[in-house]
Amino acid sequence: MTVFWLLAAALIAFTMVGLLRPLLRAGRAPQQPQSVATVDLYRGQLDELEADVRAGVLAPEHRSQARDEVGRRLLDDAGSLDTAASAPNRPSPLLAAALLALLPSAAIVLYLHLGNPIALWEASDPDHGHEGAGAPSAAQIEGMVNQLAQRLRSEPDDLEGWVTLARSYAALERPGDAAMAYAKAVALAPDEASLRADYADVLASVEGGVLNGLAFAQIQRALALDPDQPKALALSAGAAMERGDTQEALRQWQHLHRLLPPDSQTAARVAANIAQIGAPAAPATAAPQQVAAEAVTGRVALGSKLPRTPAANETVFIYARAAEGPRIPLAVTKRRVGDLPFDFVLDDSLAMRPDHRLSGASRIIVEARVSQSGQAAPSEGDLIGSSGPVSPGARDLGIVIDGIVGARPTQLPSGSR
């Protein structure tokens, strides 16, 4: 950007020098080449006069009178030329000052109005904050955002501009300003569900993360406009958890999970949220005849030589996943370490989505994991054990938790207890 402004300043300076130099310089009186031509003209008239006398056209007694007349005309013309030649070429400082003040200012104002100053902030600009980083500094980003806000004052109906400004404020962690910009955008597009979801998100940030305040009305409005709006579903689930309504939260998470690509990271995070909410555990004395044909049953126990000693209140997740393909759980349940050892049953009733169930898999792996954090997503320090691959409907699996996340878990043959 600096190069652009330097070139612009150089062009303006060059132009101003060309305009101001004649106005500021006191020039010498110009020479009048017309005076020489005038003398030659009257000399020719005198020669013609003498020729007329010799030819008898003009009487000799009238020659003196005619010469005097030519002489008077010559003197009159010469006086006019001398007056013009003596006129001074005076400088014009007032005009020069006016041009110096107006022309550069007019050029800059026209560029800011008709041009695109934001386009000057390119990643290749050598003035950007970090050498070779290819990204503008925080101050430069603030400058661009402020320029956009200034422009929107004169163009208040620019929906795309308000959305960009709102997202920029959110990225700069200015939720109050982002909320005001989203309010402008929502007013211009009141039936846009995604805008209302984004608006709800920043309103929650303004209120310290509370979703059941001002944000909740926007969440409800977004879902009324589009029941499948992903961000609104996630916010609605979060609001339900905030109220302690786990069933409503589970319903919203499951709805969202059905809309997502199975292999996406977002789907995995949603699945972790669903698993964290959990489902009622199967009865500890469930007999084989009491479970569905595709159900997997077994018993989980802690190994004798553990990498660490888990606390009694740590969460134990038991889940089945396909031996090949996505690692999203086909069925999941959870208990506490204090309940170990315990029996488990995994079946289609514990599926997180209707189209991703235990009965639809050909081979599965059953795992049990002790989570220090209580989160469904694995983390360093979690203890783990597994059994499989086995077919759906396998009975009496024995899973011993004696490994740690990142290491190869111990696997027992299917059917061992």
State the main characteristics.
417 residues; Serine Threonine Protein Phosphatase 5, Tetratricopeptide repeat; Immunoglobulin-like; 3-stranded mixed β-sheet; 48% helix
3D structure, described in words:
The chain is α+β, with helices and mostly antiparallel strands and 417 residues long. The chain is built from 12 helices and 8 strands. The chain has helices spanning 2-24, 34-55, 63-86, 93-114, 138-154, 159-171, 175-188, 193-206, 214-225, 230-243, 246-259, 265-277; strands spanning 296-302, 315-322, 331-336, 342-346, 364-371, 383-390, 397-401, 403-404. A 5-stranded antiparallel β-sheet has the order 3-2-5-6-8, with no helix packed on it. A hairpin with an 8-residue loop joins strand 2 (315-322) and strand 3 (331-336). The protein is rod-shaped. The two termini are 72 Å apart. Residues 122-133, 279-289 and 407-417 have low confidence and may be disordered.
Low-confidence stretches: 122-133, 279-289, 407-417
Order of helices and strands: HHHHHHHHHHHHEEEEEEEE
Strand content: 5-15%
Mean pLDDT: 77
The biggest beta sheet is recorded as: 5 strands, antiparallel
* Shape label: rod-shaped
How many helical stretches? 12
Oligomer: single chain
CATH top level class name of the domain at 282-404: Mainly Beta
Q: Strand order, main sheet: write it out.
A: 3-2-5-6-8
Write the CATH architecture name of the domain at 282-404: Sandwich
- The structural class is alpha+beta
Q: Total strand count, please?
A: 8
Radius of gyration: 46 Å
Question: How helix-rich are the residues, as a percent range?
Answer: 40-55%
What is the terminal-to-terminal distance?
72 Å
Per the CATH scheme, the topology name of the domain at 282-404 is Immunoglobulin-like
